[in-house]
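Researcher: Please generate the 3D structure of the following complex. Treat every line as part of one assembly.
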Amino acid sequence: MRDDLLDLLWEGLKETLYMVAWSSVFALLIGIALGVTLVVTERNGILAAPTLNKIIGTLINGVRSLPFIILIVLLLPVARFVVGTSLGPTAAIVSLSIGAAPFLGRIIENSLKEVSSGKIEAAKAMGATPWTIIFRVLIPEALPALVRGITIAVIAITEFTAVAGAIGAGGLGSLAIRFGYQRFRVDILIATVIVIIALVQLIQFSGDGVARSILRRRRQL
Amino acid sequence: MIEVSNLSKTYKTGKETVTALSNINLSIRKGDIFGIIGFSGAGKSTLIRCLNRLEEPDTGRIVIGDTVITDLDDKELRLARRKIGMIFQHFNLLDSQTVFQNVAFPLSVAGHPKPYIREKVRALLALVGLEDKENVYPSMLSGGQKQRVGIARALVNDPDVLLSDEATSSLDPQTTYSILELLQDINAKLNLTIVLITHELDVLQHVCDRMAVIEYGSIAETGTVDKLFLQPESHTARRFVSIIDYYRDKRSIIEGFGAGI
Ligand SMILES: Nc1ncnc2c1ncn2[C@@H]1O[C@H](COP(=O)(O)OP(=O)(O)O)[C@@H](O)[C@H]1O
Ligand SMILES: [Mg+2]
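Model: Done. Output below.
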């Protein structure tokens, strides 16, 4: 029985890690694009385009106002189109990435906004292009804040992954529901919760560690 | 060297419009340290920021050397800015980069090869007296050292002009003098034209050759720094100078009584 439990947990954890890792990567790529675009297209931004800014902002707010469980259902056809099925971990990655990207976009936007306008002005005064300013000023200067924000987002994606488990995504979430809720296996339910908590702690701990080591290298800590 | 004609600038914030500059005319000679003095909100920063078009003028023409700054498109402006150094009150160094990388920034933006960059950055760090701080991050430096890095960064592309917006205003008096001395030194060594904005008469008197007084967005008077002290014409200039006169009078009264304080 105990071996059986460990096996289940191990399979669940592997699926969860697979979903969290890939969803985070894709959500991060989309989120960076969204966040950077939001910052540079602001009215006083380095590539001011207020209308585009409004459109993206409204889209993000729209997606973010939907409860995640509804968003997954809405995105099922997209998942089927991209990976050929709407069931299983790979299909869930599509929904998770698209669902988390707007959240990451806002987090990245907020971190980048913390970079003082004076630094951007100085770069402009030295003849830097907007591209250079994005990659050599905005992102590096905001890096510690970015890492902290991304950590929060990865933890949110971990939570979303558990929710996605409820509708057939697999992973620890579906383990908890299939055994803990539907078959009253309290031991599996508790074990799953412990593994998820440990996973979240580990993500937070790693994120904090990376942010701190960046600051320490720059002697800002 | 720098010719400004009929320069105007208004800011629109919501419904309000603020006239920051109205019909500015200025002529700055090559190799001068030119001071622009005025009270807070007079339009000094707006004026100096118009010179490299960090702020877009509404009307007017700006010529620096042979370049009509106001006629340039984005790309030409970026090239022109390489020859216009700028230093700031809050230094605006990049905390993510070492002193070396900060000073190298304008050169790598301009696409210079690495060996050239290394040589040039070291030469500039020597000029400002920070050879030993190459690999240090800005957060480890004092205010005066940070401004030295700012100066090295502003000069690394061999500009013709250096713009200084209150570059000593957040430094203590002693550090202020050392930075002013450095600017004088650079001005003499490199025959660099310096436009220096300040709200401190002391700074103006210490380093500037000629000056302009700016009042409510207009030039109230221009001339040599001596003229400002001997024959202040504008309201602003008289207020600046009257503070000095007040203490001179007070001192002579005290001395007259033979009293030591
Ligand atoms: N970005 C801005 N938006 C709106 N008003 C501004 C802006 N920058 C400056 N101003 C206004 O323009 C006037 C001149 O400001 P500034 O040039 O900064 O003065 P100074 O540098 O002499 O203190 C002030 O009334 C100020 O409030
Ligand atoms: Mg100012």
